[in-house]
């Protein structure tokens, strides 16, 4: 992303934040003036109908002389004045001046007073809006010190008016914010401590929602300094999830000895059943999940004929016809998605009968390309080469992780395939996920029938490797307890097939491999939706363990520059 794009994004975010504050104050001001106008309308009704009040208030009898009676204000006018003054004493700080004249003059003057008062209210509102609209949004280059300015609004939660005191931040944070650069890991940790200390002055244990609100304001103010971007400029995330994870971890650490202030999430009862539906979980990260337009000149009938043609081709040629079937698969992509997105979803064995070439490598990867706009094999190969060394370097620095140490001890870097195997096994060990959550080991001479007979295959996708795990001879793919692909060479193609199957067939990441799969999704393939999750236990946003590893890798990359 160029500097102009960053500047445009920064200005848009600042203008959006300012507009939200303007409309918030505008709405509050309108409500106040509507209440004031309502009170004055009720007062005008009282003035226009004094006879109603005459039935309620009894005037005392007084004996006065004829001369005094001529100078005295008429009783009806006096009642009008008393009623107005008593109401204005309760509602207005400065009651208006009312002349002692006849009743008609009293009513006319009160109407004029209301008109003038409303005109003043409108003028005050216009002035307030003009003052807001004239506020200039300072650019980072013109600020002397970083400062988050939030207009204090009454009767609102404390975090909506919270101001970060940047004077208590490390000098490196101030410099990074002004220069639009990424702060060092040490400065960032010190900033997290300072922000949490300021938050705990208002609330000892802020909830995750409160922390997210404050973090979002920081990211909006300085997106360039806190965005998750690697040294090659590849955008991983806006930085909200990683900074939120650090701040919430710090909050929990500060409350570790205070069990009364800990927050517990209410557990769902087991009786709450899930409704089978298609929705955001399936569409997560997809760009063409359920297209509606058919190819030009095609109908559902003609596309169904093409599907039958591919079934016939497979029955005659087997997977050898996959190369010729790729174009036909691209043509029928729309009805493929309609079939796969049905509720309830079709069984994998039925999918293979209806669309056999979807389980060829070319068919699997072509479908994923249309679904996500990502060439998965090329993207994985590039990511393993570019980010693999950083992962290896970080794992060498880890202490007291026997799983990581075991993988590194058996690693012999001879080929790119060896490096890819090592990285996947390191990720599983780092996240403390079982190796068989993704990879199963089989006898080097086993066939698909032998594996289905001798191994207990789970329902979620598994990569079955023949021979040694660190140096596999071939791979097969199993889904729903059936071997559906293979045997094939190239381990990295096998990892691509496993991952693509989760997206192609609308499958959720199993809990036992959720971290590794999400890391592959975000770090290697660059699929970074802001909301949602493909994990079975949906957390929303980035998995905190994945977020931590991504941040460590980015810090290591920036420190090595």
Radius of gyration from CA coordinates: 35 Å
Broad shape = globular
Quickly count the domains: 4
SS class: mainly alpha
Characterize the main sheet.
4 strands, mixed
As laid out across the biggest beta sheet, the strand order is 3-4-5-6
Q: What is the typical, i.e. mean, pLDDT?
A: 76
How far the N terminus sits from the C terminus, by CA atoms, comes to: 19 Å
Q: In what range is the share of β-strand residues?
A: under 5%
Total beta strand runs = 6
Helix fraction?
Answer: 55-70%
Treating each run of at least 4 consecutive H or I residues as one helix, how many helices? Answer: 23
Order of helices and strands: HHHHHHHHHEEHHHHHHHHHHEHEEEHHH
- What low-confidence regions span 5 or more consecutive residues with pLDDT below 50? 51-77, 87-152, 267-279
What does this structure look like?
The strands form two sheets. The chain has a four-stranded mixed β-sheet, sandwiched between helices. Strands 1-2 form a two-stranded antiparallel ribbon. The protein is mainly α and 561 residues long. The protein is built from 23 helices and six strands. It has helices at residues 3-48, 50-54, 66-71, 75-91, 103-133, 171-179, 185-200, 208-221, 223-226, 240-254, 280-283, 300-317, 322-331, 333-340, 348-354, 361-372, 376-397, 402-409, 416-430, 448-454, 491-504, 514-524, 544-559; strands spanning 228-229, 235-237, 439-442, 462-466, 474-479, 482-488. The model is unreliable at 51-77, 87-152 and 267-279 (pLDDT under 50). β4 and β5 (474-479) form a beta hairpin.
